[in-house]
């Protein structure tokens, strides 16, 4: 596998006023931000959307570790098979080496 060009982990979810905000990389880059004021106050209309956004932030923050784990796991396979194919596809998707 080619060396990945993504920002190296550790990534962490960032919250502002207990609301999902974005992900910060170890070099301080912040992305996947949302205006927390959109979810103002205790408005129940956005409760599920906020929970989903928080879950997405955790998933994004874990992505460098998951990519590393997939690449390490792929080394354990000596023959093609469905799990190896899934790993290859996930790695390619993470690296932007697919059309979709």
Question: TL;DR?
Answer:
This protein is an alpha+beta fold.
How would you sum up this structure, described in words?
This protein has one domain. It is 41% helix and 13% strand. The longest helix has 28 residues. The radius of gyration is 17 Å and the shape is elongated. It starts with 11 loop residues before the first strand and ends in a 6-residue tail after the last helix. The model has no long low-confidence stretch (mean pLDDT 77).
- Residue-averaged pLDDT, rounded? 77
Walk across the major sheet and give the strand order. Answer: 1-2-3
Question: Between the first and last Cα atoms, what is the distance in angstroms?
Answer: 19 Å
Element-by-element helix/strand order: EEEHH
Helix count?
2
Which regions have little confidence, pLDDT < 50, spanning 5+ residues?
none
Helical coverage, percent range: 40-55%
């Amino acid at each position: 596998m080619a060396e990945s060009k993504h920002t190296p982990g550790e990534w962490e979810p960032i919250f502002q006023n207990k609301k999902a905000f974005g992900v910060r990389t170890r070099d301080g880059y912040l992305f996947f931000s949302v205006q927390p004021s959109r979810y103002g106050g205790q408005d129940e209309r956005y409760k599920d959307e906020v929970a989903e956004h928080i879950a997405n932030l955790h998933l994004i923050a874990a992505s460098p570790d998951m990519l590393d784990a997939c690449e390490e796991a792929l080394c354990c396979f000596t023959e093609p098979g469905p799990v190896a194919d899934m790993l290859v596809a996930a790695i390619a998707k993470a690296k932007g080496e697919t059309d979709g």
